[in-house]
Fold this sequence. Notes:
Elements: H1 2-26, H2 30-100
Amino acid sequence: QLEETVAANRDDIAALDSRIGRMEQTMATKEDVAELPFIRQAVVETLETLHEISAMKQTLTEMQQKVNEVIAGQARQELVLQSLALHLLEHESEIRALKAR
């Protein structure tokens, strides 16, 4: 019976040793914990950078839209100038024709 008790105690000790081993594997070290503030700071800085990039994308999109509007306006103005140039040529031609009479 004493041998059974000793064997049971050995089994219990082995089980405890195994549990302690698993705990040690998953437990953070002092070095790991010491790095947490730096990791947090890096995460905060990364988030700030992401927000800045998002704002830059929005600004870039707005600027591209304005550039497209300017290009469209310039295209309309070019058509107006072409039309005015054509009218000018027609008027000059009519004036020459009237002078030639």
